[in-house]
Amino acid sequence: MGRVRKALTGPLVIAVLVAAVGGVGFGLYWFQPWKLWQDQTVQEALPGGTETSAPPAAAPSGETSAPPAAAPSGEPSAPSSPATGPQTLASGELISHEHATSGTVKLVRLADGSFVVRLENLDTSNGPDLRVLLTDAPVKHGRAGWRVFDDGKHVSLGKLKGNKGSQNYDLPTEVNPSDYGSVSIWCDRFDVSFGAAELTRV
Question: Which CATH number is 167's domain given?
């Protein structure tokens, strides 16, 4: 009996137990599985009010655009003025990758000329180290589209504020939004997309 007790308290057994506990602790820290059952909802208003669509592009050289319709008789015509509020330049619907993901992504130009990526009605899973990536990668369905968003040109707009809700992410001033065509909810720890949207001009 004494030998058994001594064997169970020997240095090798203690080292194995310490290693096992350490491995479990590291696994919990790395994967953070409890986040799959913890939702965080963030609701942000768009800075500057309700957005409008961007005005149509100017007619190519040599072509003339149709003149504006005349105001009804007896009514003064409204003076034309550029839009002063936020303008939606491009948008797209999120598709699911590793986790079920839905919502709308918009590229919005604010009245001061700055840009934001806006997530509206986002619904995805929570997870460790989730970020919003603006990228030049194509959006593909299925596993083929899970890991492509850090392969080419991309910029992180910061950590995901919440896995549910509507949120704004500022573009750095040096970023030209025309260089990018997609947005991914990206798990930086495991290099995998939870969901992504292709941005199409509106």
Answer: 2.60.40.200
Could you give the C-alpha distances from 177 to 21, 136, 169, in angstroms and in order? 47, 10, 13
- The CA-to-CA distance between both ends of the chain, in Å, stands at 80
* Number of domains comprising the chain: 1
Taking residue 183's Cβ as centre, other Cβ atoms within 10 Å add up to 29
Whether 63 is covered by a domain: the verdict is no
Enclosing domain of residue 174: 84-202
Secondary structure (DSSP) of 26-63: HHHHHH-GGGGG---EEE-PPTTSS-EEPPPPPPPTT-
Q: Which residues of 22-54 are buried (b: 16+ CB within 10 A; e: fewer)?
A: eeeeeeeeeeeeeeeeeeeeeeeebbbeebeeb
pLDDT of residue 48: 85
With a cut of 90, say whether residue 84 has pLDDT above it: no
Residue pLDDT, tens place only, 111-127 = 999 999 999 999 999 99
